[in-house]
Amino acid sequence: MNSHIISIVIVDEHLLSAKALKALLMTYPNFIISADVRDTKELALFLSKNDVDVVLIDASTLLKDGADIYLRMKHVLSRARVITISAENNQIAMRKLKQFTVHTLLTTYADPLSLVDEINRVSRNIHRLSPSNREGQTIDAILSEEFKISRREQEIISLICEGCTSNQIAEKLYVSLNTVKQHRKHIFRKLKIEKVQQLVSFSFKFNLK
């Protein structure tokens, strides 16, 4: 059991999902829910008076409130790690979220344990997949050297995250369907993942386009 106490703020305009998320996190003794707010204005007010470790924010709430409010509170957010949860698992949604300072993107399809692990990880400021921690290295170099992901596989990752089927990817890249299937198999094996949602999070962290 992780004994590191982590204070969390939940930001979600959807009351039902916010309460469900709060109930889940409260089952972990090292998590303290410091606040449960409906929008970024309430978040800004709370953070102006309180320090927290993790801000857990719903993507639709974030996008609805807009970048202006969010960026104005950048100085208070600098003291916390931001995890965004999105109901969309495609790259269009990810590109929208790039204007905000978020450290991790998870989808609502993610396993609850993935969220718990991510909260524990980011609260310690550990970014195993973040390219910013490898000064002097390009994203291509990190993907190639650490994960053995080729340029072609990067293209396929991007297309999968855009929602393309294997048939559509084959048509776009002028390769056979079997070739695409083999690439998908190799990508999932190299990244040690099983689901497309996990691939979306990986793509978000490396800004694959």
Automatic annotation (TrEMBL):
The modification 4-aspartylphosphate is found at residue 58. The keyword Phosphoprotein applies. GO terms for molecular function: DNA binding. The keyword Transferase does not apply. Gene3D superfamilies: 3.40.50.2300. Residues 142-207 form the HTH luxR-type domain. Residues 7-123 form the Response regulatory domain. Keywords: DNA-binding, Phosphoprotein, Transcription, Transcription regulation. InterPro entries: CheY-like_superfamily (IPR011006), Sig_transdc_resp-reg_C-effctor (IPR016032), Sig_transdc_resp-reg_receiver (IPR001789), Tscrpt_reg_LuxR_C (IPR000792). PANTHER family: DNA-BINDING TRANSCRIPTIONAL ACTIVATOR DEVR_DOSR. This is DNA-binding response regulator. It comes from Pararcticibacter amylolyticus.
